[in-house]
Queue: 3 jobs
Job 1
Amino acid sequence: MKKKLILLMMVLLLISACAPSYNLEGKIGGSQQSFEEVYGPNQQEDETGLSAIYGYVSETEISAIFFEDHALFITSPLDDMVIAEALEYAEQFLPGDAVLVEEEGDRSGNSDQVYVYDSELLGEALEPVGEEDSNANKQRFSVRFEASEESNYNAVKLQADGLEFIPD
């Protein structure tokens, strides 16, 4: 009996070690400390004007706005990327359980492209800020790729739904 119990405990330990572990470090919903750990020290020096609202700015210009120590808005410049490159770059900011629920735009680079996601992990970290619906344990957020004049994308902005203020 003792051997079976030990074997069962080892199997459960192995299963839990193999299960995907999702976190929000350096992602939408992550803490300011996690952004500093993932992207480096905070470079935000200007405490006036629009820059004063950003709680974190990295050396590579990844910027985040926090509410109750959760990143609810992230912006980062893109180096004139096609949509496939921009999507791959933006994945670093998505919770591991993010599920695409909607896509807007034509992927040509001539207009902004918007992807809308749901995340239970983000919903657990935040009390849902968006509209009340049957998915109360999920939080919706959007990823907007801004089109450049060269028919590619030059910026990505992630935003948890329900925010009243969207910086330009």
Job 2
Amino acid sequence: MIGFPGGLRPRPDAACTCEPAWLALAVRLEDGTLIDVLPAATPGGLACLYAACCTRCAARYPHPFRVAPRTHAA
């Protein structure tokens, strides 16, 4: 299984221990790319294939998420 930042591995059965909880979420693709995601009311396409995790404690996010909007530099 591919680790998260800081060498952490996603923890599927753990709750987020961060304050505030779920501050930063990401999905790691097979090639190692990290994709920032945000909590959502309904799951996006990426949520059908991957699990999101907290980037600080590596707890698996148990709710729907979507890819964060990209911002473009002017």
Job 3
Amino acid sequence: MSTRNRPLRDFNELQDFLLPALAGSYCEICGVRVTTDASDWDLRCPAHSFVGLTEEMFVGACAYRMQNIFREHLIALGRESDYSLMRYSAVGERLADCRIFKNMCIYSLWHLASCARRFLLLGNPLSPVEEVFEVEIATHAYLSYKHHLFVVAMRSGVAYALDITGVQFGPGWPLLKEWSAYRAERVLRVLGCWPLGTQRRLGEFGRKRWWMR
């Protein structure tokens, strides 16, 4: 059911990521449930197996790489010290990701701005990417939750939500989804939109403030 049909409410860990984590495996890119066996590891659905050269394949591969880089960075900072053993099972892996990315959305923009510029080949005339924005939204499903993500605008006119830390809301939250669909399903309203690197330019003071979120 679309989140548009749910009443606004506070985030609930049991309802929003423990029960979904036990419901099966999910696509690593779009978050759709792939199997109903919780012991299956997450993989990619047929639509995102990236067979063939498409602009979505290109952005999806970059998004997956950026999320892995950010995950490893947070682990190195000790964010996973209390639940690292979770990753020995498929369910534990999903729960660990929900935990490690919690409240890290703004920091992900700060840390990954240069990666986004490099991986998406911004400024290269051969790149399908026109521009990347840093966007702040109010989530539709959860009362009073603000969230931050990248939006990738393509030369073709399509835009994609690239949401590194969306999994903090549950394993069904997409890493990459076409912006029009993402906005219809997940966004109550857009609170702000800035050029790539804006959060980075706020400097060290901004970084300290993000860690207090």
